[in-house]
Design brief:
Elements: H1 3-17, E1 21-26, H2 32-44, E2 47-51, H3 54-63, E3 77-82, H4 86-99, E4 104-110, E5 113-116, H5 117-125, H6 129-164
Antiparallel strand pairs: 1-3, 1-4, 2-3, 4-5
């Protein structure tokens, strides 16, 4: 194998190995300005977009021991990886696909499992980790808050009525 090709494949392999997900999209017809906007929104969520030859990505995925998605690696393909939340990356891709007509989210690999475009769409609709943790915290705090309100109401009214006497 050509040493230059091996370097590119090794770089892709490092990105794939450091990410719990690889999301794939066809970016046919996208302008440089639009692509820059996509990259910026992905970066905000801890992800990044890579463009590489499909054969290089096939080799990197194979070396990483990930499932074979080579049937979807056709045309102008962009690959999204990251160390941030997959939901943030999926949201950025979905929003971008809405704005850019020809863009198509194809397939992905999440924690070693193949996910189709419909599942990526579902991931995009999920709340972020921070939102889920905030909701969980409010659910955990609710019983204590209710007890505190009841105690304040019970004893708060008693002390004010005693003062009036």
């Amino acid at each position: 194998m050509n040493p230059d090709k091996k370097i590119i494949i090794d770089e892709l392999l490092a990105k794939v190995n450091s990410s719990p997900y690889v999301l794939v999209m066809d970016y046919t017809g996208v302008t440089v300005t639009q692509f820059t906007t996509l990259r910026d929104s992905l970066r905000e969520g801890g992800a990044e977009c890579h463009v590489a030859k499909n054969t290089y990505m096939r080799a990197a995925l194979s070396e990483a021991g990930l499932p074979d998605i080579s049937a979807e690696l056709t045309g102008q393909t962009a690959f999204v990886t990251g160390e941030g939340e997959v939901t943030a990356a999926a949201k950025a891709m979905k929003d971008f696909a809405k704005k850019a007509e020809d863009v198509k989210i194809k397939i992905g690999i999440l924690d070693g499992e193949v996910i189709d475009a419909a599942k990526i769409d579902v991931l995009a609709s999920l709340p972020s980790r921070e939102e889920l943790l905030a909701k969980l915290l409010s659910v955990i705090n609710e019983p204590g808050t209710s007890i505190l309100r009841a105690l304040n109401e019970k004893f708060g009214n008693t002390s004010s009525s005693e003062e009036e006497e």
